[in-house]
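Researcher: Batch entry, complex prediction.
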Amino acid sequence: MDPRLRRSMNEYYNERAEEFDEIYTLGKPPGTVTDPELYKEEARSLGNLVREHCRGSILDIPCGTGYWLQFYAADCSAITLVDQSENMLREGREKAQEYGVESITTFMKSDALEVSLEDRSFDTVLVGFFLSHVTDSQMGPFLHRLRNALKPSGHVLIMDSNWTRYRGSRPKEGTTVRTLNDGRQYEIYKRYFEGADFDRMSDACEMDFSVQYEGKLYLGVTGTARQ
Ligand SMILES: C[S@@+](CC[C@H](N)C(=O)[O-])C[C@H]1O[C@@H](n2cnc3c(N)ncnc32)[C@H](O)[C@@H]1O
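Model: Structure tokens for the complex:
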């Protein structure tokens, strides 16, 4: 990815940290909101998916504000939160305190595409709304590294933006401008997925994927390493 675009995206998320959860709690995504209730309802569905699929030693990469912690904290024995944004990690630390799991949580301010991960060390890898900011050339190597970080019995849970008619006239992939509550604007890279996209990616990362949730807005997919 062009370094200028990457810097803009990183800054955007760092500055958005305090307002980020509004997408889940208020149904208020950046951009035009057609139906806040739909966003809230689908966030609840994803919460149930996280509760169902996250357990044991978990890597939440990148974690953002740690919003999904509330759904997996009780079932996890060790938690690793990775994000490039200091402000996002601060929110994550507050949530880890709130849910009583700070003592079993490791916080890492790192580039998710480059962070060093120990092989076969996680039962669950959660990737929420990050692949939609990853280009084709970054995708295979990233997923392959996650695959290697999984225990043989482990799995990834990927949640991201589904490509449906509810996306209106947006392009399926490309650069777009995002606006913060105070009006500041940033250029970011954003793509949307269909279940079939994961079939196409599976050979490159030696993983098998299975669609668990297909909403009007969001998609939930689990993946296991091919042995
Ligand atoms: C859309 S948010 C999703 C956060 C969280 N996973 C969730 O589902 O709510 C994207 C997050 O990815 C982080 N991020 C973007 N690019 C990154 C990178 N290369 N390395 C680490 N974090 C990154 C941003 O700082 C932001 O917190």
